[in-house]
Amino acid sequence: MGLGWLGLGCYPTVSTAGGSALVHTHFPYAVTYQDENTKSVLGEDWLLENYRIGHEQNDGSLTSANGSSALMNSSLASADGSPAARDGSLTLLRKEGYTFKYEFDFDDDDKTDATEQLPAPDLLLLHRKTNARLVVSTVLLDKRYADKELRVLLNNIVDNDSGTQSLFVGFGRVGLGVQKRYASKLIDSSEATLGGTKGLVATIERADVDQLQLNANARWRRARVFMMHLPFDYYVQGVPNGTLALAADHKYGVLLLVEYTNTPEDFEAQYPDFLRLMNATHVLTDDMLLEYVGKPLAKCGNNPGRTTLSVWISALGAPSVQDAGELDSICASGVISSYRFAGGEKRKVEHRYDFSKSLRPAWLDAGGYQEQRVKEAPVKEAPVKEVPVAEAAKPAAEGSPPPTEAPAATPSVGTDPAGTAAPAVNEPPSVP
User: Fold this and answer.
1) How many other C-beta atoms are found inside a 10 Å radius of the C-beta of residue 75?
2) Does residue 366 fall inside a structural domain?
3) Residue 61 placed within a domain
4) Rounded distance between C-alpha atoms, residue 327 and residue 199, angstroms
5) Per-residue tens of pLDDT for the chain, all 432 residues
6) 121 alpha carbon, distance to own chain's centre
7) DSSP β-bridge partners for residue 133
8) How many other β-carbons are positioned within 10 Å of the β-carbon of residue 204?
9) DSSP output for 169-231
10) β-bridge mates for residue 134, sequence order
């Protein structure tokens, strides 16, 4: 898909390889590959369902791993939204059908003023041996939801039959026509942080209501959900239909949603993989993104040594090279324009490169996720002391105090069974 209607132009003919991370095509965030040579995110146990491996040929065409040709469009864009380096390097090609068409109504007249296809979900990982799933999504939030607190959005997910689809209010037909009804219960929720930005993480259990009506012991699925308002907005340029107004930039909030689901009996086994995925996820500042493109930029000069790159970023987040320094300007422009920076204020940014040193950013290998989790502890019955019947029947000795009942145990709020501090657990709502 070209981005010309947004004023961003089409994908360049000179660009980066798949690189060390999967960088989103529209938002400045990335997921570090566990193995960049094979483009594996979490290793052999996890299948990346919405991408396939491909190669870039010397003529610039993309081919799948089986040798068939692939057209350069939105459903087959490489992992970072750009063609791979023309050296046969591996890249990821997004499969068809994993996009969502957003419909924007700028003036609330129930008419679509602009549309955009965005990846949906960003990542879909399926475990080879169990029914575990890991889904990473970025969701645009219109004015109804953009400023809502995370706990409110979480309750919407829990209470709504359509689950996370309930967040798409205001963007066309998403969430309508849901066939299944679900019963959900919130097990716990607490604050979590990713790269220093506060988010919310929660454990939810869901079951198909129709199955529960037929079988009270129907299987529930457990989910661990992380959600965070990303520290940038997404801007769409356009005008309401039927008006002569100048094009304006319309702002939408962006929610990062990461969901791990599994059956309760297998939930703990793959939970460390959820944590690995979270620690491999990075929200990118301007400087982090410019640092990341250092490796492909090194090919834009003849032993460039040290140089400074100046980049102008538009309100839509589209970058353009102002001064390439010692680099070839056309080559550098092709690399830089493959990425989308945070929109908002127009700005000029600079980055100093030293191509004689390692060009792998330190943040690729730095985990920035922190959470506090309340783990369910198995209930252990207290041992019962057996008292001989004869002894129990003996009358109390004269002058002995009357027997008293032991006071009921009072649970300690905010502590786990071991007595260590832990966050309070939300009371689960009643299940319909």
Assistant:
1) 17
2) no
3) no
4) 40
5) 222 222 222 223 222 335 899 999 899 999 999 998 888 999 999 999 998 887 654 434 444 444 443 332 222 234 444 433 444 567 788 888 888 888 888 888 888 888 888 888 999 999 999 999 999 999 998 888 888 999 999 988 887 754 555 555 556 544 433 455 667 788 999 999 999 999 999 999 887 666 656 666 656 789 999 999 999 999 988 777 666 555 678 889 999 999 999 999 999 999 999 999 999 999 999 999 999 999 999 999 887 889 999 999 999 999 999 999 999 999 999 999 989 999 988 999 999 999 999 999 999 999 899 998 876 544 444 444 444 444 444 444 445 444 444 444 333 333 333 333 333 333 333 333
6) 9
7) 126, 261
8) 23
9) TTSTTTTTT----EEEEEEEEEEEEETTEEEEEEEEEEEEHHHHHH-TTPPPEEEEEEEEEEE
10) 125, 260
Number of folded domains that form the chain? 1
Residue 274, domain CATH:
3.40.1000
329 three-state secondary structure: helix
Residue with tokens 């929660």: 202
Residue 146 sits in which domain range?
A: 112-279
What is the spatial distance between Cα 203 and Cα 189, in angstroms, rounded to a whole number? 6
- The full DSSP string for 257-272 is EEEEEE-GGGHHHHHH
- 94: part of which helix (H) or strand (E)? strand 90-94
d(CA 408, CA 430): 26
- Cβ contact 228:194 at 8 Å: yes
- Which tokens go with 115? 């549309």
| 95 in a structural domain | no
Q: Is 333 strand, coil or helix?
A: helix
CB count within 10 Å of CB 1 equals 17
Q: What is the CA radius of gyration of the chain?
A: 27
What does the block give as tokens for 165? 């689809």
Does 211 fall in a domain?
yes
Q: Compute the distance between CA of residue 346 and CA of residue 339 in angstroms, rounded to an integer.
A: 16
Tell me the C-alpha distance between 122 and 12, whole Å. Answer: 22
**Is residue 242 left, alpha or beta, with left meaning phi > 0 and alpha meaning psi from -120 to 50?**
left
Sequence letter at residue 271: Y
Find, among 217, 220, 188, the residue nearest to 205 by Cα: 220
